[in-house]
What we know:
Layout: H1 2-5, H2 9-25, H3 36-55, H4 62-65, H5 73-91, H6 95-106, H7 111-118, H8 122-151
Helix pairs in contact: 2-3, 3-7, 5-8, 6-8
Amino acid sequence: MGMSFFRNAEDALDFTQEVFLKTYRNLSRFEGRSRFSTWLYKIAYNTAVNNITRKKTYHSLAEDEIASDVDTPERKLLRDLARDAVLEAIRELPERFRVCVDLFFFYERSYQEIEAITGYPVNTIKSHVFRAKKILRGKLEGFAGLARGGAE
Length: 152
């Protein structure tokens, strides 16, 4: 989760160490009402939000997940353009939408796990994911037509 919130490895390593220290110090508070991984994500999420508030440097996991294969120079260019368009559209989402999208699609967390991590109610999370998809679809609609036209 560290690299998804921070743009460089050093900050991500510091973040990871901070999360593990907090987890170790608070291990006695784990009550077992949720999975351990959900509890750990909640600690990581809260730590990241506090760091973001201080530094204002959110980095979406999508930036790492969207990889491009190398075929022809034209296909690589189209993939790079598509990746950049998607990343820019995700960066422009309101933070509450971006966090829900990251946790749901890139970390594959359930709505209940996202609720435990963020504190947002499940219906709010569903709404955020739905609205984010609608926003992304609108922002990328013109690009999708261009990419299809360029690839044919």
